[in-house]
Model the fold of this input.
Amino acid sequence: MKQSQMIRHFALSLAVSMTAAPAFAQDTLKIGFAVSLTGYLAPYDTPTVEGAKIAIADINASNGPYKVEAIIHDVRSDTVQTSVVVQEMIDDGANVIVLPCDDDPAIAGGLIAQDAGIPSFSTCATNASLTQAIGEFYFVNYAADIVQGATLAQYAHEQELETAYLLVSPETTYTGNLPLYFGEVFEKQGGKVVGKGTYSLGQQDFSAEVTHITNLDPQPDVVMTSAYEPDFPAFLRQLRSAGVTSAVYGSDGIDSPTTVSLGTISEGVVFTNAGYPTPGTRLGDFFDQYEAFYGKKLSNSFAATGYDMMQVIEAAAIAAGSVDGRALRDAIDAIDGLDVVTGKISYAGRERVPARSVSINQVSDGAVIHLDTRVIDAAILPRSK
Amino acid sequence: MRLGNITLALILLAIATTATVFGSTAMNNTVSYFFILVVLVVALGIYVGNTGIVSFGHPAFMAIAAYLTAILVMPAARKSALLPNLPDFLSTFSAPPLLGIVITVFVVGLIGAGIGLAISRLNGASATIATLGLLIVAHSLLVGGTTFTRGAQALYGIPKLVSPISAAIGAIITIFVADWFKHSRWGLAARAVREDEAAAAASGISIKRNRTIVFCLSIAFTALGGAMFALHLGVFSPKEFYFTLTFSLLAMLIVGGASSTAGAVVGVAVITMITEVLRQAEPGFSLGPIQIPALFGLTTIGISVALILTLYRRPEGIFGLKELDDFLPFDIKPRVYKRSVINTPRPTASQTPKSIRVQSLTKRYGGVTALDAVSIDLQQGEILGLIGPNGSGKSTFLSCASGIQRFDEGEVWVHDTQMAQGNPVAYAHNGVARTFQNIRLFARLSVAENVSAAMVSVPGPANSPTVADILTRVGLDGMALRTASTLSYGQQRRLEIARALAICPDFLLLDEPAAGMNSTETDDLAALIMSLRDENGLGILLVDHDLPMILRLSNRVAVLNEGKLIALASPEHIRENPEVAAAYFGEGQSTLSE
Done:
């Protein structure tokens, strides 16, 4: 019995080494995903990782110079856990670290990767200041707040909107700063911010803020907010009930089926996201690929930006010809106009906050229509707070 | 220094040393954080364990401590970049880490004392809800207080200085202090209050002051944990210190045993181990030929299951009320408590016999008059029986005359002090002790601790009896280490009297002490009561249904009926009083003697 077990064991290890053998022809690029698959960040990290997995399958099937090995661990939306897991992944030889979609865990994990000289990305933290907080090895992946705010402001200016009201919540950097970036660029373009209101996350009664807006004379041309569910629908409903007809602009936080399902209330709402899947485009194909891969429909752009991130890493590794941290970092920092599923992405000359295409969309007749996709000019970007 | 603590400290130091010598950086992080959790959970246990009140608010103080430490310890240049609005004295000052921690513990401890003053006025669930409010208020203040915080944004760049060894030292200090405090006179008093507030107050324990002390100490060590958290992680924002953390700390405390310091440590260890094992299993693994698929969320499920199992199988946690000492093969000498202040004379030090004078006491419940202008006085050296049919107002009278209940009209004088209403502690300190109709012991404390809790709370003369003396006196010698709730009924009654005697009273108010006793027990009790009068000169108010005993023991007997005092005379006169007989047996019976 014992002997037969040994033989079987030997045969098994032989088989394993034989199947593993061809892989030696490729170099392995080890990517550690210290991401939140549970907890409050799961809705963002999970689709990003799903998209990344499709990319990894594609990369590994393409027989390129690198084979990607993914280590995926859940950090439960917890900062302490992120720092522990990132350290483990680095000890385990990870070449790149992917971090959760929020500032604290991204900084905690990013600083460890920084110390180890290993490039890191957050799945979708949009705070461009993290590049300063962490250092030269950290890269923003998703469309940063400054990029979305500036894109919306530029679009508002093109629509000849002249006055704006900003609704912010200081409880998160996203809801607190993005509208301010919008306001800053909006005024630079010649518009005027005529009022600013503050709300709390989870606040259901917006009557004070809505009264503030209805008392403005004349009413603002546009109300801009980065509020998301459940605040955004509540606010919008109360705003429209009060008879305010101003345009309403939001950011990718309302890129969800709920917004469309609000019916006439959400008619005309404009919002940005990382890409609109027009059929026939690369992104449209990716949405189909996602559905084929997971058997469910994709309803936001996080999976696509997850795919993008893997393309960036692979391209950098090929350009660097190495998986060394410093070489990878320099190669990512030099990426210029790389074709990815959401369009083009450039890190070169951008201080690790990528220039990437942002789509402008509008709710119309119970559906989302695509208005424009553009890459904002670095010159009009505001300074990240 | 108790052996259990030394054992625990050695284990923790061994873990820390092993991690430092052999562990990877990741392992060191995990071990350091484990010790920080030990500090936090043991600190939380100081309050929750000793008072029995669940607190959701501790992470609020942890947050304040983390911010304060960060502000104190961060390099000045980084401070001015991240927190440009800091007052000058803070922005230019950069403290050595140890000084930063000491300042933090002191300042946050003081804040804890201030808030403890407010929270200690609330009981049980109200106090818990108040701590919940505290958590939310503190969170809002941290998000809004952008002079000292970065609002919702993360504060980063705090030097990461915590090593497994330094964290272990923090944990060991916390464990030693927590265990010392638990067995100190304040800790003992707090545990007595936890077991029974009314009895504790009647034993002279000032509940508010006691709870404030407990809260303050608990918060000071929570601050230590918060400071270590900041110096361990190097980055945090207000949301780190919110409900998620509150619930994980409470889960660890509940699993280990809230009332046990060693239990708190074990709780942290168990939850950390469950987390670490399940975390490794989450991404999936192969078990021989079987491939276990990835299942993220396993750790959370594991912790929840552990919590549910604990609540279901061992509601008091793995350790319950026990400490490590209880499991070690050594004889543990229980702590011997001494009277708190010796030789402090009572406010009234006169030579004449003292008395309690109750004048025109009226107590109404809505429209019902429970006591109607009742005046009774009790002299030292006498037994005054108080009888009356059910609902005649005997217990109400006793509660009003011992400060437990407030009343509508009238006055109570203890010798020459007019007593404030509803303040049983003052009665105890003026020499009035009582027992309760439904036995109210500190059920989960030992017999000796029951007596000690009262003894340490009320000053008395130097030659007053020790705990052992008192237990011998009531016939409970040799039972000092028994848990009070395991005593027989008659023994529990006697323990209540022992506890009452521990405050060196001049007066003893006994509410149905013979209820439920067999005749032998009643006889023993009667002998004890008489000796307390004859040998110790106590004035005893004896409320009971046992008429023969009352008539046999009492010097005078007062009779209540429907809230009115219908007679106050010698037992012989009461026996012949037709009004008393009518009250007891209805019209037609002319005297009790028939």
User: Anything to note?
Assistant: Chain B has two domains: 3-240, 355-585. The two ends of chain B are 65 Å apart (CA to CA). Residues 3-240 of chain B form one domain.
